[in-house]
Design goal:
signal; single chain; 12-stranded antiparallel barrel; 13% helix; 3 helices; mainly beta; two-stranded antiparallel sheet; 17 strands
Length: 303
Protein backbone atom coordinates (compact mmCIF):
# COMPACT_ATOMS: atom_id res chain seq x y z
CA UNK A 1 0.00 0.00 0.00
CA UNK A 2 2.73 2.45 1.04
CA UNK A 3 4.84 1.48 -1.98
CA UNK A 4 1.94 2.11 -4.39
CA UNK A 5 1.31 5.52 -2.84
CA UNK A 6 5.01 6.39 -3.13
CA UNK A 7 5.17 5.19 -6.74
CA UNK A 8 2.30 7.48 -7.70
CA UNK A 9 3.73 10.22 -5.51
CA UNK A 10 7.11 9.98 -7.25
CA UNK A 11 5.47 10.46 -10.63
CA UNK A 12 3.66 13.51 -9.27
CA UNK A 13 6.76 15.07 -7.72
CA UNK A 14 8.73 14.56 -10.95
CA UNK A 15 6.01 16.53 -12.74
CA UNK A 16 6.13 19.21 -10.06
CA UNK A 17 9.92 19.37 -10.17
CA UNK A 18 9.84 19.71 -13.96
CA UNK A 19 7.31 22.50 -13.59
CA UNK A 20 9.66 24.15 -11.09
CA UNK A 21 12.45 24.10 -13.65
CA UNK A 22 10.54 25.79 -16.46
CA UNK A 23 7.59 27.76 -15.03
CA UNK A 24 7.52 31.55 -14.86
CA UNK A 25 7.07 32.63 -11.26
CA UNK A 26 6.11 35.79 -9.43
CA UNK A 27 5.90 36.89 -5.85
CA UNK A 28 3.39 34.81 -3.92
CA UNK A 29 1.67 36.06 -0.77
CA UNK A 30 3.92 35.44 2.21
CA UNK A 31 6.89 34.33 0.09
CA UNK A 32 9.23 37.00 1.42
CA UNK A 33 8.38 36.10 5.01
CA UNK A 34 8.93 32.37 4.60
CA UNK A 35 11.74 30.86 6.67
CA UNK A 36 13.99 28.53 4.69
CA UNK A 37 16.51 25.93 5.91
CA UNK A 38 20.04 27.20 6.32
CA UNK A 39 21.42 25.32 3.32
CA UNK A 40 18.65 25.96 0.77
CA UNK A 41 19.49 29.45 -0.41
CA UNK A 42 21.90 32.33 0.12
CA UNK A 43 20.73 35.29 2.23
CA UNK A 44 23.01 37.86 0.56
CA UNK A 45 25.69 38.02 3.27
CA UNK A 46 29.03 36.36 3.77
CA UNK A 47 29.09 33.62 6.38
CA UNK A 48 31.40 31.14 8.02
CA UNK A 49 29.94 27.89 9.33
CA UNK A 50 31.63 25.00 11.09
CA UNK A 51 30.58 22.13 13.29
CA UNK A 52 30.26 18.38 13.53
CA UNK A 53 27.66 15.92 12.27
CA UNK A 54 26.95 12.36 13.42
CA UNK A 55 25.52 9.76 11.03
CA UNK A 56 24.06 6.58 12.53
CA UNK A 57 24.85 4.47 9.45
CA UNK A 58 26.55 4.69 6.08
CA UNK A 59 23.69 4.64 3.56
CA UNK A 60 24.00 5.60 -0.12
CA UNK A 61 20.91 5.66 -2.36
CA UNK A 62 19.23 3.28 0.09
CA UNK A 63 22.19 0.87 -0.02
CA UNK A 64 23.97 -0.19 3.18
CA UNK A 65 26.25 -2.86 4.57
CA UNK A 66 25.07 -5.66 6.86
CA UNK A 67 27.25 -4.06 9.56
CA UNK A 68 26.05 -0.66 10.72
CA UNK A 69 28.75 1.95 10.10
CA UNK A 70 28.27 5.17 12.08
CA UNK A 71 30.45 8.18 11.31
CA UNK A 72 31.50 11.45 12.93
CA UNK A 73 31.80 14.15 10.28
CA UNK A 74 33.50 17.50 11.06
CA UNK A 75 32.43 20.10 8.50
CA UNK A 76 33.39 23.63 7.52
CA UNK A 77 31.87 26.05 4.98
CA UNK A 78 32.56 29.62 3.87
CA UNK A 79 29.96 31.44 1.78
CA UNK A 80 30.57 34.72 -0.06
CA UNK A 81 27.94 37.43 -0.54
CA UNK A 82 27.65 36.41 -4.18
CA UNK A 83 26.49 32.89 -3.23
CA UNK A 84 29.80 31.21 -4.07
CA UNK A 85 30.90 28.84 -1.31
CA UNK A 86 33.74 26.53 -0.37
CA UNK A 87 33.39 23.62 2.02
CA UNK A 88 35.12 20.55 3.35
CA UNK A 89 34.45 17.58 5.59
CA UNK A 90 36.11 14.48 7.07
CA UNK A 91 34.66 11.02 7.72
CA UNK A 92 35.76 9.51 11.02
CA UNK A 93 34.65 5.94 11.81
CA UNK A 94 34.69 5.62 15.62
CA UNK A 95 34.30 1.82 15.62
CA UNK A 96 37.57 1.18 13.78
CA UNK A 97 40.66 0.20 15.78
CA UNK A 98 42.99 1.64 13.14
CA UNK A 99 42.68 4.28 10.42
CA UNK A 100 39.59 5.92 11.88
CA UNK A 101 39.92 8.66 9.22
CA UNK A 102 38.00 6.96 6.42
CA UNK A 103 37.71 9.78 3.91
CA UNK A 104 36.58 13.32 3.24
CA UNK A 105 35.71 15.85 0.57
CA UNK A 106 36.44 19.35 -0.69
CA UNK A 107 33.66 21.24 -2.48
CA UNK A 108 33.02 24.50 -4.29
CA UNK A 109 29.64 25.72 -5.46
CA UNK A 110 27.25 28.54 -6.20
CA UNK A 111 23.73 29.13 -4.86
CA UNK A 112 21.42 31.81 -6.19
CA UNK A 113 17.84 33.04 -5.98
CA UNK A 114 16.46 33.41 -9.51
CA UNK A 115 13.10 34.79 -8.33
CA UNK A 116 11.31 35.02 -4.99
CA UNK A 117 10.15 31.44 -5.50
CA UNK A 118 12.86 29.79 -7.59
CA UNK A 119 16.40 29.09 -6.41
CA UNK A 120 19.18 27.08 -8.03
CA UNK A 121 22.67 25.87 -7.35
CA UNK A 122 25.64 24.03 -8.82
CA UNK A 123 28.67 22.46 -7.16
CA UNK A 124 31.73 20.26 -7.63
CA UNK A 125 33.06 17.92 -4.94
CA UNK A 126 36.33 16.02 -4.83
CA UNK A 127 36.05 12.94 -2.62
CA UNK A 128 38.81 11.06 -0.82
CA UNK A 129 38.70 7.57 0.73
CA UNK A 130 41.49 5.58 2.32
CA UNK A 131 42.51 2.34 0.64
CA UNK A 132 40.70 0.21 3.25
CA UNK A 133 37.39 2.07 3.11
CA UNK A 134 34.32 -0.14 2.67
CA UNK A 135 31.80 2.67 2.37
CA UNK A 136 29.19 1.93 -0.28
CA UNK A 137 30.24 4.98 -2.32
CA UNK A 138 34.00 4.57 -1.83
CA UNK A 139 34.56 4.13 -5.59
CA UNK A 140 33.34 7.71 -6.23
CA UNK A 141 36.13 10.22 -6.85
CA UNK A 142 34.21 13.36 -7.90
CA UNK A 143 30.63 14.64 -8.04
CA UNK A 144 29.06 17.36 -10.19
CA UNK A 145 25.68 18.59 -8.92
CA UNK A 146 22.96 20.94 -10.17
CA UNK A 147 19.74 21.61 -8.26
CA UNK A 148 16.49 23.55 -8.39
CA UNK A 149 14.08 24.48 -5.62
CA UNK A 150 10.66 25.96 -6.47
CA UNK A 151 8.28 27.24 -3.78
CA UNK A 152 4.61 26.88 -4.64
CA UNK A 153 3.50 29.69 -2.39
CA UNK A 154 3.24 28.53 1.22
CA UNK A 155 2.01 25.10 0.18
CA UNK A 156 5.00 22.95 -0.87
CA UNK A 157 8.46 23.22 -2.37
CA UNK A 158 9.44 21.06 -5.34
CA UNK A 159 13.08 19.89 -5.33
CA UNK A 160 15.13 18.55 -8.22
CA UNK A 161 18.78 17.42 -8.00
CA UNK A 162 20.99 15.87 -10.68
CA UNK A 163 24.41 14.33 -9.94
CA UNK A 164 27.12 13.08 -12.26
CA UNK A 165 29.61 10.93 -10.35
CA UNK A 166 33.08 10.05 -11.58
CA UNK A 167 34.23 6.64 -10.29
CA UNK A 168 37.68 5.15 -9.96
CA UNK A 169 39.60 4.08 -13.03
CA UNK A 170 38.10 1.02 -14.64
CA UNK A 171 34.61 1.67 -13.26
CA UNK A 172 31.97 3.42 -15.37
CA UNK A 173 30.53 6.72 -14.13
CA UNK A 174 27.06 7.20 -12.64
CA UNK A 175 24.15 9.59 -13.17
CA UNK A 176 21.58 10.20 -10.42
CA UNK A 177 18.31 12.11 -10.33
CA UNK A 178 16.63 13.05 -7.06
CA UNK A 179 13.16 14.62 -7.00
CA UNK A 180 11.09 15.48 -3.96
CA UNK A 181 8.46 17.66 -2.37
CA UNK A 182 8.68 19.27 1.05
CA UNK A 183 6.83 21.72 3.29
CA UNK A 184 8.38 23.93 5.95
CA UNK A 185 6.75 24.43 9.35
CA UNK A 186 8.44 27.13 11.42
CA UNK A 187 8.02 28.50 14.93
CA UNK A 188 9.76 31.66 16.09
CA UNK A 189 10.48 32.78 19.63
CA UNK A 190 10.81 29.28 21.10
CA UNK A 191 13.16 30.23 23.94
CA UNK A 192 14.11 33.72 22.74
CA UNK A 193 12.70 36.41 20.46
CA UNK A 194 15.04 35.53 17.59
CA UNK A 195 15.02 31.73 17.94
CA UNK A 196 13.66 29.67 15.05
CA UNK A 197 12.51 26.05 15.04
CA UNK A 198 11.98 24.50 11.60
CA UNK A 199 10.70 21.09 10.51
CA UNK A 200 10.53 20.13 6.83
CA UNK A 201 8.73 16.81 6.13
CA UNK A 202 10.01 15.53 2.79
CA UNK A 203 9.09 12.79 0.32
CA UNK A 204 11.75 12.03 -2.32
CA UNK A 205 12.87 9.44 -4.80
CA UNK A 206 16.32 8.54 -6.13
CA UNK A 207 16.93 7.04 -9.55
CA UNK A 208 20.16 6.37 -11.41
CA UNK A 209 22.78 3.88 -12.48
CA UNK A 210 24.67 1.63 -10.07
CA UNK A 211 28.20 1.40 -11.44
CA UNK A 212 29.47 2.43 -7.99
CA UNK A 213 28.44 -1.08 -6.89
CA UNK A 214 31.04 -2.57 -9.23
CA UNK A 215 33.78 -0.97 -7.16
CA UNK A 216 32.11 -2.06 -3.97
CA UNK A 217 31.82 -5.64 -5.23
CA UNK A 218 35.54 -5.70 -6.04
CA UNK A 219 36.49 -4.17 -2.69
CA UNK A 220 34.34 -6.68 -0.78
CA UNK A 221 35.78 -9.58 -2.87
CA UNK A 222 32.42 -10.65 -4.24
CA UNK A 223 34.24 -11.59 -7.45
CA UNK A 224 36.81 -13.83 -5.79
CA UNK A 225 37.76 -17.29 -7.02
CA UNK A 226 36.15 -18.80 -3.90
CA UNK A 227 32.72 -18.47 -5.46
CA UNK A 228 31.18 -21.22 -7.51
CA UNK A 229 30.95 -20.93 -11.28
CA UNK A 230 27.20 -20.36 -10.98
CA UNK A 231 27.72 -17.57 -8.46
CA UNK A 232 30.38 -15.89 -10.58
CA UNK A 233 28.08 -16.11 -13.61
CA UNK A 234 25.35 -14.41 -11.59
CA UNK A 235 27.73 -11.64 -10.51
CA UNK A 236 28.82 -11.10 -14.12
CA UNK A 237 25.22 -11.05 -15.31
CA UNK A 238 24.20 -8.50 -12.71
CA UNK A 239 27.31 -6.36 -13.23
CA UNK A 240 26.30 -5.99 -16.87
CA UNK A 241 23.06 -4.31 -15.74
CA UNK A 242 24.65 -1.80 -13.35
CA UNK A 243 24.79 0.90 -16.01
CA UNK A 244 21.02 0.94 -16.47
CA UNK A 245 19.07 3.91 -15.16
CA UNK A 246 16.54 2.60 -12.62
CA UNK A 247 14.68 3.51 -9.46
CA UNK A 248 16.95 3.10 -6.41
CA UNK A 249 14.84 4.09 -3.41
CA UNK A 250 12.07 6.20 -1.95
CA UNK A 251 12.90 8.30 1.08
CA UNK A 252 10.72 9.76 3.82
CA UNK A 253 12.48 12.26 6.06
CA UNK A 254 11.71 15.07 8.47
CA UNK A 255 14.70 17.43 8.86
CA UNK A 256 14.53 19.45 12.09
CA UNK A 257 16.56 22.58 12.66
CA UNK A 258 16.77 24.90 15.66
CA UNK A 259 18.62 28.22 15.42
CA UNK A 260 19.52 30.36 18.39
CA UNK A 261 22.09 33.10 18.09
CA UNK A 262 25.08 31.72 16.21
CA UNK A 263 24.19 28.11 17.04
CA UNK A 264 22.37 25.71 14.70
CA UNK A 265 21.15 22.30 15.89
CA UNK A 266 20.04 19.78 13.27
CA UNK A 267 18.44 16.34 13.33
CA UNK A 268 17.30 14.41 10.23
CA UNK A 269 15.65 10.98 10.52
CA UNK A 270 15.28 9.12 7.21
CA UNK A 271 13.33 6.02 6.25
CA UNK A 272 14.36 4.58 2.88
CA UNK A 273 12.39 2.00 0.90
CA UNK A 274 14.92 0.19 -1.29
CA UNK A 275 14.34 -0.82 -4.91
CA UNK A 276 16.35 -2.89 -7.44
CA UNK A 277 18.79 -4.41 -4.97
CA UNK A 278 21.54 -6.89 -5.71
CA UNK A 279 20.33 -10.51 -5.89
CA UNK A 280 20.49 -12.16 -2.45
CA UNK A 281 22.71 -14.92 -3.86
CA UNK A 282 25.63 -12.50 -4.21
CA UNK A 283 24.82 -10.02 -1.45
CA UNK A 284 26.35 -11.90 1.48
CA UNK A 285 28.03 -8.77 2.86
CA UNK A 286 25.28 -6.32 1.87
CA UNK A 287 22.04 -5.59 3.61
CA UNK A 288 19.11 -7.14 1.73
CA UNK A 289 16.45 -5.46 3.86
CA UNK A 290 13.75 -3.81 1.78
CA UNK A 291 13.92 -0.72 3.99
CA UNK A 292 16.49 1.02 6.17
CA UNK A 293 16.20 3.68 8.88
CA UNK A 294 19.05 6.00 9.80
CA UNK A 295 19.55 9.51 11.11
CA UNK A 296 22.00 12.40 11.11
CA UNK A 297 22.38 14.96 13.87
CA UNK A 298 24.78 17.83 14.34
CA UNK A 299 25.62 21.15 15.93
CA UNK A 300 27.12 24.10 14.07
CA UNK A 301 28.29 27.66 14.63
CA UNK A 302 27.57 30.25 11.93
CA UNK A 303 28.97 33.78 11.80
Amino acid sequence: MIKNILQHGLALLLILASYAAFAQSGTMPGATDKTKPDNKTNDGTSSFKFGVNYSSNNVFMGRSDTVRTPAIIPQIKYTLKSGIYFSGSLDLIPGKKKKKLDGGDLSAGYDMDITDDLSAGASYSKLFYNSNSTQIASSVTSTFNVNLNYDLGDIISALLNADYNLNKKGINNDVFLNAGITHDFSITGVFGDDDIFLISPTVAGNAGSQNFYDGYLIKKNFKSAKRTAAQNALVAQYSATLGRFSLLDYELSAPLEYKTGHFIFQFTPTYAIVENQLPKQIAAALSTHTSVFYFETGVFLKF
